[in-house]
Each structure stands twice: as C-alpha cells, then as structure tokens.
Amino acid sequence: MCRHIAPVGHVMADEAVTPHGIALVVASQRRGLIDWNADTVGVVYAEPDAGNCRAHCVTDQPLPAAIAAVRAEIVAQNQAPTVVYDVHERLRTKHSAFGDNAPAPTETTGDVALYVGDEAHYLWPSAVEAAIKLLDAAGMHPVPIGVGQSNGYLAGSLGFPDTASRQATALLNEVQATGARQLIVLSPGDVFTFRQLYDERLGIDWPAEVELVDLTTLLASRVADGSLAFERLNEPAAYAYVDPTHAVRVPERFDAVRALVSAVLPTAPLELFWRRERAHPVGSTAVQFTRPDIADALTRARLEDARNAGAEILLCEDPGTLFHLNRHAASMGLRVQGLYELLAERLI
Amino acid sequence: MERPGIQHEMIRSELEEIVGEAYVSTGEADRLVYATDWFWLPQMWLDRGAPPRKPDYIVHPGSAEEISAIMKIANAYRIPVIPWGGGSGSQGGALSVFGGIILDTKRLNKIIEIDEKSLTVTAQAGINGTQLEWALNEKGLMLPHYAASSNCATLGGYLSPRGTGTISTKYGKAEDLVLRMQVVLPNGHILRTPHVPQHAAGPDFYRLFLGAEGTFGVITEATMQVDYLPEARLLRAVLFDDLAKGIEAGRQIMTRRLDPFVIRLYDPRSTASRVKKILGYELEGAYMVIGFDGDPDLAALQEKKAMEIINQFGAQDLGREPGEGWWNHRYDFYYPPQSLKLPWMYGTTETVTTYDRIEKLYYAEKKAVEEGFKEWDIEFIGHFSHWFHWGVMVYTRFIIKNPPEDPEEALRLHNRVWNTAMTAVLENGGMVNEHHGVGLKLSRYMRRQYGDAWPLLESIKNTLDPNGIMNPGKVGFGF
Q: Is residue B479 domain-resident?
C-alpha cells in the first residue's frame, strides 16, 4: 500500500511496476506460476531503488533490499538483461559505469576526507570543486577519496553484491589509509549507502572511528552559527529546490538543505509537489541502464512538477540528480544550477 | 474466452491505434499482476500456486475519448471490458473472470480545478486518493473520504462501489460527496451529468453509475465536494461493559445530531483481540472511539453533550490518548503485519440496517457463523463504524486460521460461510454490503437482495450494455 508514493508506478501508470506488482511477480515465480524471462525480469529491473516505498511503508518492509536480493538470484541464473552484465563489467574493471579514468586511491592523509565518487567525477565535476571551496571557507581541507569510484550502491542494486562488497571494502580501506576521522559526502545517496546499505545489504560495518558528515548539514550549521555567510542573489528569478534521488532515505537533511538554500536566495525557494518525505527520484539509479524509458519518465516528471510550481531555475546538490535534470531541462524551458556551485560563487 | 491468434493480434493492433503501442500490454507479468485485486479468493488462488484467469489485454487510456473508442472495439468483438483503478477492491470487482480488456484508468490522473469558493475539486477518475488529498491539503482543504485504501485507490474507485471512509459518519459516503461526473457509456457515448446534484429536474439517474462498479460505464471524471481541514480534532475512547449499551449510546448521539466525525464501537471479541493486538490496550467490554472536529469550541461542546449520553450508560472514560492512538493507527488494522493474511481464510461480511434491527442482525449472523462452522474453529468479530441518523453499519468478519489446503476446497468452504452469513443478514433486514461493493463476491446475492426490483435493474443494464461487455460477472450481471 505504498502506491501513492511509488514513483515508477506513478509515472508509468502501470500496476506491474509498483512495489505490489513487483512483489507479486517475484512471489509468483517462487510459486511456480511464472518463469524468469525478458518480460518478467524487466519488471524486477524496473524498480528504482530510491527508497520511497520503504520510507512510506507502515511496517518498514525493506522491499528495495529484497528486490536487490532477487536480482542477485536472477543474475546468478544468467537471466538478467544484457545491459546489466555490461554495466557490471564496467563497474568491475573501471570502478564506474560512467567513465574509465578514475585515479588510483589517494596516498594523502588528513583528518577529513571527502567522498567524490563517480557521479560527481564524471557527470557533474563542478560540484566537487565547489564543495572543496566551501569546505576551505569553513576551515576544513578534506582529502578527496573514491574519486571516480562507485561506492558499491549500483553494483548491489543491479544484483552483484560481491562486487558491491569489494567496492565498499576498497573505499573503506582508502578512508582508513587517509587516517580521516570524518568522511564528508555530497548527497543523500551517499549517506544512505554508507550508513544503511553497507550494513543491511552487504553486512559491512561502518568504521566506528569515522564520522559520516553530510555536506549540506555541515554547511547549514556553519551558516546558523555565523561562521559562513553568502551574498544573497538579488535577481528575482523563480528558484525551486529539488530534493534529490534518495532524499527520502535521509529525512533529517530536509530542513538543513532548505536553510542553506534560503541563505543565498532573496526569497524562500519554490517548493515542488513531490518534495521532502514524498520526493520522487530522477532517473539516476540503476533504471538509467535497465529501463531508460522509466529513467526519462521519472526525470521529466520532476521537471514537469517544477514547471507546474512556476520554477525557472532548479537547485540541487546531488551530482547524479543534476546530471539527469540537466539532460531534459532545456527542452522544458528550465535551467539547472548546482547548489554547491551557487553557494561557492556567493561566499562572503 | 480464448481467441484465435490472428484475432488476438488484430484486436491488439486496433487498441494500439487508439492509445499507442506503449499503452497496450499483453505481457506475462502485466497479465498476472492485473489478474488479482484484494479479494481473498484470487489472492488465495495465487498463494496456493493455482493459475489465475488472466485478462487478455491491459490498456492504459489517456482520455475519455480513447475509452470511448475502446468501447466500440469491445462491442464489435464482444470483449469484456473491466475498469481498473487502484486494484484495491476486496470484492473481486476488478477480476477479469471472462478475460478481456483491463482498462487501467491511472493515466487519467489530473486535477482539473480546485474551486476554493464553492469548495469543490474536479479531477480525473484515475487520480490516486492520497495524491488528491495531498493536493487539497496544500490549500487547507480535504476530501472527507478517508478510506483505508486511499494510498492505493483512485477517485473512480471511491465512487464506483459507493465507498465509505473513516469519517463518513459526519461527512457522508463517497456518493454523498459527488456533484457531477463524466461517464463513458458502454456504447462509447460520453456524457456529463448536470452541474449540481440537488435539484428537481427529473430523477437522479446519474446515481445509476454509483455502485454499478463499471457495469454501466466508466467514470472518467468527477466533481467532489471538499471541506476545510478541521481546526480541531477531538478524540477520546470509552469502554462499555455491554455492547448493547454502546449501540444505544451511539444511536442517541446520532439521532440528537451531535455530528461526530467518527464513532467506532468494537464488539467485546474485537476489543479483546484486534484492539489489544494493534493498539496495545488490554480491555474487557466494548471499546468505543468517538471524535468531533471542526471549530474547536463547537467540537468541544458536541463532545461534552455526547459524553453526557455516554455517561448515562456507565461507560468508563478512557481519555484522549486511546482515542488519538486509534486515530493515528486506524489503518494499521488493514496493513501487514496486522491485517488478516493468508494462509488464513477470512472475509468481511459488513452490512447495514436500521437501529431497530441492528442488534438482532448482529447476533443472528454471529450465531449462524459461529455455530455453522464450529468444526473450523471460526472466529467472528465486528465493529460498528459508519453511523447514520437511522441506523448503523456493522463490519463483521470471520476468520478461519486452518482452512483446507486445496484451493477448490478452500473456495467451497469460503462460499459456504458467506452463504450462511448473507442468509442471516438478508433474513434480518440487512443489506449484503454497506461499502466494499458487490464485485464478484456478492454478485450471486443481488437477486435475493432486490427481489421484485431486480428485473428493473437488469433491464437498465440490458439497455445500456446490450452486449454485456462491461465488467461481466459482477453486481449480479452475467456475460
């Protein structure tokens, strides 16, 4: 009964790609009523793994994790779509589905590390540069780690938990090699992966000595205590803030990121209908590979939502979300702006 | 019914020409998922590994005009058309028992207008109930139809089976909230009912589509009355040592028009089992939740007057927390893991009648079911939850925790329990149903329910739908 919030069911208007439909397909395969084939597997790979169904599940059923486990079974039976194996091969050999020039793990040490990852490195690199500038202004000088490296989320979501575990372990080794006591992350997807997914899906403990820090929360606290300030924009454009993919998995960020946005805009940003606890993802999860039709529909629905709210410029901090919004924004008369970049430009 | 491959493809092509290739599916997964709603029977059938009767096509139209064109094809080929909203019906009303076209209305999900002066909302019928509610809440409004299925159900699904929500006692059933509708008739004609429902310009024929569950046409749009979000919601719980005292207290509160938005009175067995399990209150007797909303002063006065009545029956005032706790967890009764679930056998034999008959009906049904199926250790529970000036609905349920393994045997037993319960209901002046609709489950009782009036309904059906394509097998109509 999470169909009111299920993003794919909403944009596709199709019962089969709701959590209920996917669960029924899986259960029917278990009962011997259907076999895995291109059609039935296609349904299992339609789920975006963005956390909406779980966030609204009255009994907190971990359906996304269960679907990832089913995908692992399908992968093991060699029944997954070809693209799944192709993406996995890139993840396995190039550490990312998005590029192949990931640098070697850093040998620099420091108290604070910044997880860059592969989406920021390949898809929206300006966010990294801006984040470092903001952290400098806050008196923090992080060591970038995991540059161009997936954190394991995508591999796990596609049904390759072993690869996900290897990527997670490599990342944690890199964190420990830096000696960092704080790991700063750019997006709610990273918070979710490190804080919850590693434990729940991979059985990997987050090192107790390393504090996970969400960058927007950190910056908002610095704005609140007056140690960071921004010159407010004075142009009267209609800005809207877009809660990124996975935002619903980290609800404690909602107010912090809005406080940050409000610190730089002349007026409060427009709010979208699909916001905060009900924020839908864009197509920045595994569906961008397995079901590009769904990925595009998700992204366009977010843009349509923004347009309905009267927005002209969309702000977001998450590199993956920004990349996907930007692919379709111009065609819908909208402009996309990275939040970290805007803040870095307006630093006082 | 099976169609030769050539005909199947020809029909598919024609449907694709109307809605586009992306919106017609004959895929295995789609056909399986659309083969069941929330009716116990198809769920049990699947749970036991028995293959369901699947639809032939799943079509997602984007407009009333597309639905109109689909109707013409369905008539030409004599194919059943089964309207589908959220698939949350508990009566099998969306099952494709003769195959055919599932007409999923969820692409019709736009809000057309929110009129803040007249307090109405006009929306397409496929909009999700909770999403519609969120949109209204943004303007300080609500659609006062708080169904347990709102997260799943659509606006059309509220109306089609004449649904009732949690706060119906004050605000009415879904059918009471509708001002006008757009309907696509079985012959493809698109009609709009008049702008307002209360008038004297002839009979209320538009009400034919409410409760028809898609057998008379497809509701594609509706204008609904909305309300301001209440400034106050005052809830409290009381405990009666005797169910009869609770019913009488409820009757007096209603007949004196104290206007509670909710009265929910659990029978002693429900109080001891469901209330204890879900809300954690260990109580003996009949637990009642009562609530008043709206203007804080008025609500407080109404509550005071209601408590004066309740106190006359010696009820124990449990205070606000157990009332508010119920409100906050009111849907938990219907969601896993607290809901009734397979492999159990269960059914909700909810009914409604006047105050002078309700107690007799409740005990007659309870006795018939408990004594008739003693060997199955059947459990019979109930609560009185939708109150009118003239009577009350009782939401009775039966549960068998060890039903037969064989699906056909299980179905036979299920039908026997239903026959026993419905016979008791009909013999004691009850309706076969108050708000879940008729669907497939209760279809066979419709002739008994309506008696001499049934041929009139049948003739209307035959006039509107001479080929019988619309949702066959439901609401008493065949194929």
A: no
Q: To the nearest whole angstrom, how far is the Cα of A343 from the nearest Cα of chain B?
A: 30
Domains and CATH numbers, chain A: 7-81 (no CATH), 112-221 (3.40.50), 229-345 (3.40.50)
SS3 of residue A60 by DSSP: coil
Q: State the average pLDDT over residues B26-47.
A: 96
Q: What is the pLDDT of residue B338?
A: 77
Residue ranges of chain A whose pLDDT lies below 50? none
Q: What is the DSSP string of B430-449?
A: --S-SSS--TTTTGGGHHHH
Chain B interface, best mutation among A28, A29, A43, A270, by max B CB count within 10 A = A28
Q: Is residue B471 in some structural domain? A: no
| Residue contact B33–A24, C-beta within 8 A | yes
Give the domain range for residue B289.
232-334
pLDDT at B192 over 80: yes
Does B343 lie at the interface with A, CB-CB under 8 angstroms? no
B116 in the same domain as B82? yes
Number of independent structural domains in chain B? 3
Residue B66: pLDDT over 90: yes
Does residue B213 lie in a domain region? Answer: yes
**What are the tens digits of pLDDT across the range B378-405?**
999 999 999 999 999 999 999 999 999 9
For residue B320, count other CB atoms closer than 10 A to its CB.
Answer: 12
Q: What is the CATH number of the domain that holds B397?
A: 3.30.300.330
Contact flag A4-B128 (C-beta cutoff 8 Å): yes
Q: Is A39 touching B (CB cutoff 8 A)?
A: yes
**CATH code for the domain in which residue B244 is found:** 3.30.70.3450
Same domain, yes or no: B323 and B416: no
Name the residue among B87, B131, B336 with its Cβ closest to that of A15: B87
Is there a single domain that holds both residue B255 and residue B198? no
Axis-axis angle for helices A63-76, A82-94 (nearest 10) = 100
**The predicted structure's pLDDT at residue B2:** 65
- Residue in chain A closest to B103 (alpha carbons) equals A14
Indicate whether B367 belongs to any domain: yes
Please indicate, yes or no, whether residues B311 and B447 belong to a single structural domain of this protein. Answer: no
The rounded percent of chain B whose pLDDT value lies above 70 is 100
Q: Nearest C-alpha of chain B: how many angstroms from A8?
A: 12
Which chain B residues touch A21 with a CB distance below 8 Å? 29, 33
**Could you tell me if B190 and B184 are in contact, meaning their C-beta atoms sit under 8 angstroms apart?**
yes
Domain co-membership, B374 together with B225: no
Percent over 70 (pLDDT), chain A: 99
Q: How many helices (H) and strands (E) does chain B have?
A: 16, 19
Whole-Å CA distances, A311 to A266, A271, A307, A308, A342: 15, 9, 5, 7, 17
Contact A273 B138 (CB under 8 A): yes
Q: Does B33 lie in the same domain as B165?
A: yes
Report residue B304's pLDDT band, with 50, 70 and 90 as the boundaries.
very high
A296-307 per-residue burial string, b: 16 or more CB within 10 A, e: under 16: bbbbbbbbbbbb
CB atoms near residue B447 (< 10 Å):
14
In a shared domain, residues B436 and B446: no
Residue type, A19: P
Domain co-membership, B75 together with B103 = yes
Quote the pLDDT of residue B209. 96
Mean pLDDT of chain B: 96
Q: Which of B23, B33, B330 to mutate to test the interface with A (most CBs of A within 10 A)?
A: B33
E strands, B46-149, are 57-59, 81-84, 101-104, 111-115, 120-124, 141-142
How do residues B115-168 score in pLDDT, each as one tens digit? 999 999 999 999 999 999 999 999 999 999 999 999 999 999 999 999 999 999
User: What average pLDDT score do residues B70-92 get?
Assistant: 96
Task: Please answer yes or no on whether B28 and A39 come within 8 Å at the CB atom.
Answer: yes
| pLDDT for the residue B131 | 97
